[in-house]
């Protein structure tokens, strides 16, 4: 059994960081996004978090309202393309478009559940810094403190911001260093290759996802 020494751990993290940056850089280059400056990126994230907390803290706020905030704040089309990855080579253009539409709806469904919305409640946040990344994004660091656990360490959340059509959008979020974009890519890859869900068949894969989000299956 291979034992990881501190040196091995450091090398492993460097390797993972390199793979992540290379994958994101390729996706971002293909999309031809612009890199926003530090101040506008911090201001964008500040406004986005405030809107999210405002919605989350209203008892009458619906899931749809939070979902709409997600939809307008993320580059869902480009994220969907990245998440599909090399599996997309077996998709027709029409199937790729179907996946993008399903992905946008599924993203909203996943991240606007009452449980996830509640995580914004009773918290305070701080936009700490912003720095340009080698993957072509401006990464904004925020700290979230949970008021009901004042002794706990603040949660670190990093927002990868890009500019598309002169408007700022989110390309990825890292919770305590874990990329949600790569997590989604892994999840969809598993569904695509699963024998009872996708079986490496684009049509079967799309039908499974459409049923999951309540979309009428296309022929």
TrEMBL record:
Gene3D superfamilies: Tgt2/MlaC. It holds the Pfam family MlaC. Keywords: Signal. Residues 1-22 form the signal peptide. The keyword Repeat does not apply. This is ABC transporter substrate-binding protein. It comes from Candidatus Finniella inopinata.
